[in-house]
Amino acid sequence: GMATPRTVTLLDYGAGNVRSVHNALKLHGCAVAEVRTPEDIDAAQVLVFPGVGAFGAAVARLETMGVCDALRRYLADPSRPFLGICLGLQLLFEGSDENPAARGLGVFRGRVGRFDDARASVPHMGWNTCAARAEGQVVLGDDDSERFYFVHSYRVALDASDDAHRYCVGAGSYAGDPFVAAMQRGAQCAVQFHPEKSAAAGLALVGRFLDRSFGRREHGPPPVTPSPLLMTGDTAATKHGGLARRVVCALDVRENDAGDLVVTKGDSYDVREKEDVAPSSGGDTTNTNGSHPGKRRVRNLGRPVELAARYYEEGADEIAILNICAFKGEPVADLPLLDVLRRASERVFVPLTIGGGVRSYARVDGTAVDAVDVAAAYFRAGADKVSIGSDAVRAARAYYARNETPDGTSSLERIADIYGAQAVVVSVDPRRAWLAADDEATEKHVVDPHPTARGPNGETRCWYRCTVRGGREATDLCAVRLCVAAQALGAGELMLNCIDTDGQGTGFEHALLSLVKRHVTIPVIASSGAGTPAHFVECFKETDCEAALAAGIFHRREVGIDAVKQAVGDAGLVVRAA
User: Fold this and answer.
1) Which residues 6+ apart lie within 8 Å of 521 measured at CB?
2) pTM (predicted TM-score)
3) What is the CA radius of gyration of the chain?
4) Rounded distance, CA 310 to CA 431, Å?
5) 194 is catalytic
């Protein structure tokens, strides 16, 4: 008869995107059983523990589920196969500076500490190597130049404890700080990166873990713990150049008149086709698409799931799906992007960011929907990060009105508290605001002079004015001040657009990017204006952004993702091979 599928028990305590871990296990032919009771852990053949979010919130959820003792029992026997991911590694230790009062599982001695943001942007976010490896380890495979996707502000330092050093089989390095990237004790492994988001390298790791875990009875005794790591100086950092610059592909999604979700790419946020009146015979002024004159059609450039899968296959480091649909007040379960996400996450094993509509709103029937519930639905459907726009502007204004004190009520703070700062991206939509020679701008960060652009009357000085509602509505908030507030309120990353350069293909707005980079310590994604591979290189070199994004040029195949990566690598910058 049919062989029973290998069954993996998955401990999902309700944090963030566990769907991608499910999908990675299914891809390897496993059946997945979810932990509902402590007995499920006791009975598990193979246990996978993906952790996302904040340390304290995770401990509280595990205690509520009543599974802490069962977990400790399972982990006390090193021959029982275990894979911990990200926070699933950190929770094995005694505690974390993230939430000092929360007690970890204490399977290993030592505490989790924070990266130093005076030395590099925090979170450590993106593709990095584990170049220092223990002799005989099997978790990581043979190629020490392979890159995995990391996203974390806290880490187990290599010297955190004897246990940390003894069981570390792969060290990463960031901000001059060697840390535990992979550990193994017998059949039990844990990794700080996300294998389910690390493309082919990560999926291969999951496959190796499963083969060893299920095959171990035939292959004699359980695997031994490898010999400890031998670190010579900072081997991990120097060997392959450290963190790679990310190339991010964005899809702008909206609903067309038939109610289908389509991908569009407009210029300067105007997503209807420019008037395309056919120069046909007899003065016929119907549009080429057969609709009425003056009613412009939405550009349909392919279905979102297919496009996301194509970008993944072409080597995108990350994919952002930005929803520019109008909200119709549907219940959370019916949000149009959820289905796109669920299907995309079966085919895309790199990080997915979802933007648009992550805010509180009133449903058609008058009931309130909270922004945290919207975010939760996106995470469950397969998003790794949510991007917040207009809500962040509101939160920043309130923050400054209270003399720069957070009060914990904004959607931004509440989502970050549960899911961690790394899951919250603030998307900024500014436009240049030109100043006459004698204008004094209060509470504005001014570029003086702008390196390339000039105002309508030849002005040379400008500040960047935030807009909301997809650029349709201006505010008096300075974009740099928004970014500073966003970081203070718990955002882990900024997506910095610029309406003036959007869709122009003339390069990124370096003046804005450099200005923001000087005032924040969280990573920045440059967006708006890419037209050539050289634009990415110039942006990385001149502004020091961690990531750069484009939509239209990739979509229309005017520029290949591989060509961008080639150019970035040729310029001597670190990049993940496409």
Assistant:
1) 117, 118, 121, 122, 487
2) 0.90
3) 24
4) 32
5) yes
